[in-house]
Design a protein that fits this description.
mainly alpha; two-stranded antiparallel ribbon; 9 helices; 2 strands; 2% strand; globular
């Protein structure tokens, strides 16, 4: 590494790429939450989407097992397809949860309602974290090769490099944090969206999170009040 490279933040230059472990564990956690949902909230047949997700995840891990730095179109499309399948399963479960809140027997069970709503809300947080991770500056492999200099998300470490380790660059956990804070605060906190797609995606996530929280908690309180 040259002296000139030392003056360039890691997120702006070519690096070895981030470890696959965190993103892989996140996908596995989503699949577990999907399988744990009540039968009436899962897309049918119940095994189809989780099976496809695990299969696709396995292909991606085998093709690029350690560091996400291999730039190939089919790998990029495979990652986006996997995130799309996870999103589809979450969307179907959220839609069925709303139906159950209004018409189904689950709406009369406060504990099951809160547990299912919490699982879907958490799944939604991780899914949006994956979308942010997949699209910021072209995705993890493109970031490893420093393809795009302008960030879609401006992290604190980018604004204050003197407060971060020299080799700091955003990784999946940073995007998961972004997703969680956006879902709880319903607005940006310390990570600023810079591009229009980032702003619209964060707005969509905040809206979905707010609707889920209001509907589930309101119904659960109503059920508890009726039982008392």
């Amino acid at each position: 590494m040259t002296d000139r490279d030392d003056d360039v933040p890691a997120w702006q230059r070519k690096t070895e790429g981030e470890s696959r472990i965190a993103a892989t564990l996140a996908v596995l956690a989503i699949v577990v939450l999907q399988v744990a949902l009540p039968q009436q909230l899962r897309p049918q047949p119940a095994w189809l989407l989780p099976g496809l997700e695990i299969l696709l995840l396995g292909v991606l891990v085998v093709a690029n097992p350690f560091r996400i730095n291999r730039e190939e179109r089919w790998l990029r499309n495979g990652g986006l397809l996997l995130t799309g399948l996870l999103s589809l399963a979450t969307a179907v479960s959220a839609d069925r949860l709303v139906f159950e809140l209004i018409h189904g027997p689950l709406s009369d069970n406060a504990s099951a309602l809160l547990a299912s709503g919490g699982a879907i809300w958490l799944t939604n947080v991780v899914v949006f974290g994956l979308w942010y991770w997949e699209f910021d500056r072209g995705g993890p492999a493109a970031r490893a090769h420093a393809r795009k200099p302008l960030p879609d998300f401006l992290f604190v470490q980018m604004q204050n490099p003197e407060l971060a380790p020299p080799e700091w660059e955003p990784q999946f956990v940073d995007y998961l944090y972004l997703s969680f804070t956006n879902a709880t605060a319903f607005s940006p906190t310390d990570v600023m969206p810079m591009s229009r797609w980032a702003k619209l995606t964060m707005m969509a996530q905040s809206t979905i999170s707010l609707i889920l929280v209001i509907l589930v908690i309101a119904r659960a309180i109503n059920v508890l009040h009726s039982d008392s």
